[in-house]
Amino acid sequence: MLKTSGISVAPLSVPERLLLGPGPSNSHPLVLEALSSQPVGHLDPFYIDLMAEVQDLLRHVWQTSNRLTLPMSGTGSAAMEATIANIIQPGETFLVGIKGYFGNRLADMASRYQADVKTIVKPWGEAFSVDDIEAALIKYKPSVFALVHAETSTGVCQPMKDIGDLCRRYDCLLILDTVTSLGSVPLFLDEWKVDLAYSCSQKGLSCPPGLGPFTMNQRAEEKLNNRKGKVPNWYLDLSLLNQYWGSDRVYHHTAPVNMNFGIREALRLIVEEGLENSWDRHRKNAEDLWQGLEVMGLELHVKEELRLPTLSTVKIPKGIDGKAFALHLLNKFGVEIGGGLGELAGQVWRIGLMGYNSQKKNVEKVLNLFDSELPKFKE
Amino acid sequence: MLKTSGISVAPLSVPERLLLGPGPSNSHPLVLEALSSQPVGHLDPFYIDLMAEVQDLLRHVWQTSNRLTLPMSGTGSAAMEATIANIIQPGETFLVGIKGYFGNRLADMASRYQADVKTIVKPWGEAFSVDDIEAALIKYKPSVFALVHAETSTGVCQPMKDIGDLCRRYDCLLILDTVTSLGSVPLFLDEWKVDLAYSCSQKGLSCPPGLGPFTMNQRAEEKLNNRKGKVPNWYLDLSLLNQYWGSDRVYHHTAPVNMNFGIREALRLIVEEGLENSWDRHRKNAEDLWQGLEVMGLELHVKEELRLPTLSTVKIPKGIDGKAFALHLLNKFGVEIGGGLGELAGQVWRIGLMGYNSQKKNVEKVLNLFDSELPKFKE
Hints:
The structure is a homodimer of 379-residue chains. The first copy, chain A, has 379 residues and is an alpha/beta fold. Chain A has helices at 29-35, 45-62, 76-87, 101-112, 130-140, 163-169, 218-225, 238-245, 257-273, 275-295, 322-333, 360-373, and strands at 18-19, 68-72, 93-98, 116-121, 144-148, 150-151, 156-157, 173-177, 196-198, 212-216, 311-315, 335-336, 338-339, 348-352. At the A-B interface, helix 1, helix 2, helix 3, helix 4 and helix 9 of A face helix 1, helix 2, helix 3, helix 4 and helix 9 of B.
């Protein structure tokens, strides 16, 4: 009866990589140690306490007091979908600011929840002005506006001044994608009047991928409570998750306990360093990278005042096969840098300095590699 | 600007637990070692090879040749929802066999995808007969029938003889929940003519929770390919995931790479032991547990021929506070056993012997604890 397919695999042996691409980044060794603890039950009193700690720590790095703040049991994309699935009702107008790959993803997701999706678009590498946004809010009267704070596909950091006020004035909820900014770039969710936000574990937090931090404020919660019918997504239903992560601790799904051990340690390390110190470190190392690249005659895709400290897009010089160069760095030196995504495919490299990997020695390493290896790829 | 909430948390220190409840079970130490490797990129050639290995290994433990076999980047519940989200079209009749908690969950999920949900019900602790199922297929003419193979809430293993043939005769797809059977209880998906199945990582596979193995055959794939409109769930959309896990390797979401290191090692260890040997080990240890409990005068909730080797439901004797006893074992001895869920709350304990924890020494430990500690709880 039993078919043995002659499977024989060797024990796992993971090659050593320095991950300087768009994420995942390398994890802090203490996070990996936490991850390798034996699991406990998802209703164990120890774990229940740990959940509360993770929630408090997430509130801190996001600078929010939102009660409903928790890591979704999936990657950042699951948390992204959670903001939409819980908040959008069929037929509602959902406005997305698209200035890169992840804006498109938001639009695709919202269409699956039967939103009437409207978009405002900027070239990949630019940011929206307050006027752009106000004009679109007037034109489309959306009930939800979604914006990407840190566009991993372009390396742009969206200035957030006045946008939250604008959304309140036009009676619209604001969703903010903070996937590539949480823990590493200044974020003030409450001050910015952001209603829902999400992130990931594998970038600024120095943890492996697998959890999607999620938060929603009282305004968003009220909308969820007043929605007609069940949330059309069981796994991401905040009204159910609230019973597990809220005070009731009612079983929803078996939590990924080890990943939560990891993120708790990751967040603790940020507190230990100091959140502002982490922001400053990311800024400083990014500036050193930019300067070093420019000294070599390379050009950055984004103008300085909009640049994201965590992810830099570097123009691939004419005549260079960007993909071959990145593969060379990976195969020969174990260093990963990213290629362009979507519209920027083939045009830029993406160099990430995120979380644990935002270190002076890594800046030097990648600059030295560009210096010594890139000339070999010139025609 | 920055609010420091005076957060100060100590480095993580996880208490030692022997997890003999409904899952998670303890992980194999080599799985935890794999989990703590530094991540690699989700498009790294090494990781691409590893994905193919994980897929092959999953096919083996499920005894299927289904092309679309992969771990969903969420827990078992996400994989459960994936079967429904991809296959159900609004208005279609979805029949669920409910004989425990997880049948109810399937019904809830299907209602969110606008299925016309019908149910057949059995008392918690029993299984469906082929006649029960045939009568319901005739009565409701469902396009999908979902059944739980191993009900974690009751400890019942559903006999699968003839059910797949029946579903084909009545032109209906068969979804099977194998959350508490994969790797530990005989499963022959192809032979049983199961069209879609899902499982979890934290039970028979000896890996922490966080991944949801998923599989669908050609029949199910055809239905997916012919569906009208997009799958109403982006994260679990198999038509997108297929591009990443299939031959194209198109980026969908950042895979939880470390969890995949873990499950690859977990599955490799099952192959190393021999799949049939693993099944036999689970059976033998469960039988020893049942015998030991009965010798002590305790009663099992399920009749022997329907019992699940991985999860045994034990009737709480009259006059005993079952919850207090379980808490005593946890706090005093670090041993977790489960309480009843849903209809069986307060009536049974649930003792799990799953994966790495299905060991003779653990059977002896739990029997000794019942022997020495239970009398202290008698009135």
